[in-house]
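Data card: per-record layout.
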Amino acid sequence: MYRWHYTKSRYLYVGIHLMSTALAFSKGLNPFHIVLTNPTFPLGGLSAASKIEVLDHFKTTDQYLPQVLIPQKLSFEERKALALSFIEKLSLPVIAKPDRGVVGIGVIRIDSAKNLDEILRIMPCDYMLQEYCDFPLEYAIFFCKFPNKEKGNVVSLSQKLIPFVIGDGSKTVSDLIELNPDIKYNKNNLVAHAKNLDYIPKSGEKYPILVQASHTYGCVFKDRNHEITPEMEEWMNEMCSAESEFYFGRFDFKIKNKDSLKTGRGVKICELNGCWSEPLHIYDDDHSFSFAAKEMYRSYSRAYKIAKLNKKRLKPKIPYREIIAAYRSYMQEKEAIIRIVG
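The structure for this 342-residue chain is written out next.
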């Protein structure tokens, strides 16, 4: 099967935006109304919004990971003092990443004082530090709740698999990638973004090629919708009730074990993508482009239905200028992060 989602095409995303726009108009809305899916979140949780501000809505939950904002406008000494104050309460390593979502770009694991100085000196935008979670599994859970319903549902469950190689004590990571038959369609992404390609893993060592579970970087996503259970939906509803006006978004979780999916214990939130997020199960290699298009249509249909209900219920003013300005600065930040951090 042709792996459509490994193809970089601006036309694909233009098509998605056109579909979303058509759906908005069909419901008597315009595309900006999508921010009403989560009316108390900055910009509804768009990628141009602050991750810190979005995640802080779930600060009271057991799934929350401690984090701190490191503003770029501060001097190096001020940024370092703020970072060290945060790290002293925890321990190394910690995760550093841009405060606005850039599909995994610029995410760095900080293991030492030297690593910290490096990222603080070059960071081209506001960054956040987040407690490192060593849980071995990563899942994306998409939650959807309509304002006129008491409870919501898990509409997508995906497992994120970071590609790895097994060392033989003589070959580099780069050599092992070339020899691994399982790494084929996403090899270019992996090689372009992997760190320590010259490292020689010990014999039998399982070495993860990436730090971030990002599809852009070559991470593999698997459709696990068949594993959605009533127990999972129960704890997700309980967790999401921490914010009464949260209705639509995808959580990226670190998971301790499979049982954690049923109980919500041993689960930590790494990211929350709000109103413009997509269900990741569409990127499973077994799914065709037509399947993905249908699923995206269903997802945006839910988003605009929620937005319409909230518009009628709350009668809010849409901050058009704020949204446009946020996206302009966001795109500038994204280019700077790609250029400087990579």
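Known properties of this structure: The mean pLDDT is 89. Residues 4-160+221-340 form a domain with the D-amino Acid Aminotransferase; Chain A, domain 1 fold (CATH 3.30.470).

See the next section for split statistics.
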